């Protein structure tokens, strides 16, 4: 096994070698732009790591890793359009830098390109990768729709919210790990265990993202801090504050989540105070720890060597300690 940094560096080199701006420029330049903006590259790294966990050379999984990274970035381009987000990884979003139509069309091309990468695999490997990818892609769309629907609902439950983030975020992390198992021709049992490890880790990751959206450092977060509050998104922080806050806090929170002022700074400040005072900020951190522990429990049961478990464990720990 290699270090996490090695997998990331190898993937970035492969990404750069495959990312070309060709004609028509206005279609492909935005794709090159978003793919080179950086990011954690956690999903492709997981594909490569999982492949070597099961004894196969990680280089055989580079196309699968690239497919999942291209798909992930496609979803970000379209999410940013839906959210009217100005920043992504600290830079202008695609639709802001170009225009709305360009963002839609370039995103569509990215989705198709992701599928094309699986054509580099043959037989049962191709079939299994494509089947998992299709299932995951539609779940991500379902998760995004739930997210949109929740913005105008006042009766969102915690169970519904957790299902939404599982579909919108966690299934892609889970699929990345299972793809590594597929490329390595691991047993179905081992593939499914890796999927469960990733699913729980992905839920913890998204809950952490929700927390950082409110309480992250604007200098390192890379996105607009308070973006979920501006969009009136019923995140876990909101739901826990509604459940545990005082009558006054609940009313103030509900009132603030029904408006969209031109200058949202006071709204963000007040709501963050409610999140802290109601105990919501502490409760979400406990939930992050809970799902991380679930992920590690699955990992501990995998029949792989301790050094391989240690590397996956380290990846999970680093993910939960992140500030961006």
Q: Give the strand content.
A: under 5%
- Main β-sheet description: 2 strands, antiparallel
Number of distinct beta strands? 2
Number of domains: 1
CATH superfamily: Farnesyl Diphosphate Synthase
Can you tag this structure with a few keywords?
324 residues, mainly alpha, Farnesyl Diphosphate Synthase, two-stranded antiparallel sheet, 1% strand
Summarize the structure.
By secondary structure, this protein is mainly α. The chain has helices at residues 4-18, 25-35, 42-53, 62-83, 94-97, 100-117, 123-150, 158-183, 188-215, 218-221, 227-230, 236-244, 247-256, 265-277, 280-301, 306-320, and strands at 87-88, 91-92. 74% of the residues lie in helices and 1% in strands.
Q: What does this molecule look like?
A:
The chain is mostly helical. It has a single domain (4-320), classed as Farnesyl Diphosphate Synthase, CATH 1.10.600.10. Helix content is 74%, strand content 1%. Strands 1-2 form a two-stranded antiparallel sheet. Helix 4 (62-83) packs antiparallel against helix 6 (100-117). The longest helix has 28 residues, at 123-150. The protein is globular. The two termini are 26 Å apart. The mean pLDDT is 93.
Topology:
Layout lengths: L3 H15 L6 H11 L6 H12 L8 H22 L3 E2 L2 E2 L1 H4 L2 H18 L5 H28 L7 H26 L4 H28 L2 H4 L5 H4 L5 H9 L2 H10 L8 H13 L2 H22 L4 H15 L4
Antiparallel strand pairs: 1-2
